[in-house]
Write a structure and sequence with these properties.
This protein is mainly alpha-helical. It contains 5 helices and 2 strands. It has a domain of about 80 residues: 3-Layer(aba) Sandwich (Rossmann fold). It comes from Hymenobacter cellulosilyticus.
């Protein structure tokens, strides 16, 4: 049996990232110029590897981040389960320190196994 390696990358920069605005799974933003440069740098550094398949979320910023690999004809699957978390009512807004504290509280609950914890207005995804 051969050993498989999995490479995980985050999408490139968007204008929402620069402005400090939460995207989550409900804001389907494009990469900005810096994000396209980041994607090009990633491709330049890793294009020599024999990838078997590319997996992305359904969000276009993830597709744009790996487009050069897709253009090579690599098999591709998108999965909504790879989408970013839902930030509920905060998607598309700047986060205040209080909201950031709430988010960190939910993360702590998840770490304790309390996976029912949700942010205000978060949509529960059915799998």
């Amino acid at each position: 049996m051969s050993v498989k390696k999995i490479y995980l990358i985050r999408h490139g920069q968007t204008d929402f990232n620069v402005a400090g605005i939460v995207q989550g799974s409900g804001v389907d933003s494009d990469l900005n110029a810096a994000g396209h440069r980041q994607a090009a740098h990633f491709f330049a550094a890793y294009q020599h590897l024999p990838f078997d398949k590319v997996y992305t979320s359904t969000l276009k910023r993830t597709h744009q981040s790996v487009q050069a690999f897709l253009d090579l004809g690599l098999p591709h699957e998108e999965h909504s389960g790879l989408n970013e978390i839902s930030w509920g009512v905060r998607e598309g807004m700047r986060i205040t320190p209080e909201e950031d504290e709430e988010y960190n509280g939910v993360l702590q609950q998840w770490r304790r196994g309390e996976t029912h914890a949700r942010l205000l207005g978060e949509k529960v995804r059915m799998r």
